[in-house]
Amino acid sequence: MTDESNGYEAIAAEFLAGRGSTETRRAAIGVRVVEAWTKTVKPGGAVLDLGCGPGDPMTRILIDAGFAVYGVDAAPSMVMAFRARFPGVPVERNSVERSDFFRRTFDGVLAWGLVFLLPPHAQAQLIERVAQALEPSGRFLFTAPGQACVWNDAMTAQRSESLAPEAYKRLLESAGLVLINETDDEGDNHYYISLKP
Question: Would you state the CATH architecture of domain 12-195?
Answer without folding.
Answer: 3-Layer(aba) Sandwich (3.40)
